[in-house]
Predict the structure.
Amino acid sequence: MTEPAYLTATRAAYDTVAESYASTLRDHLAGAVFDRAMLDAFAGSVDGDGGGPVVEVGCGPGRITGYLHSLGLDVSGVDLSPAMIDVARRACPGVSFSVGSMTALSVSDGVLAGVVAWYSIIHMPPSVLPEVFAEFRRVLRPGGRLLLAFQVGDEVVRVEQAYGHSGLAVDAYRLAPELISGLLADAGFAVEATLVREPVASVPPEKTPQAYLIATVA
């Protein structure tokens, strides 16, 4: 079956920027108070439910996976980009990483305690998100938790330059929290917490508000 063009474009872009992306964002969490707060809340919720395996989908160079691992979670990472997975394996040698797509996870039904998609659904066309959320629902056990992070808006941005590289051609979708909450409900989730914060002058600088959602299998 022919791979959708958006997956091919996303893989190509992140293979190109993998090393510079990892270098730029390596220490980002240290100053990201709200990011850590939501990650900590997610980890505490999973632990409070007895723990279990967690997968970060779209894990990139493994910085979020590594942070969750440092909190004691049984976490692994999956990413579409082989170059990103190579970086992640070097950065977090004690964590399992594999190449794969969030649209078809190599995970059995109902086995995960948690799924994290940290700024990774942003490259999925909104029309595909019901399929993606259904896949997240499939692999989560009853009561399992999902953490999403994404930029807020209602537009698509064509990314042609990023992290010191030009010649890219990948779309990034800004998303409304209300839209995502509704799609999650349709997929069998109940949203437990939503945080929207204003953009900050980070590196790279943010241009839109940022949203974080924690949901549980209803």
Q: What stands out?
A: The chain has a mean pLDDT of 95.
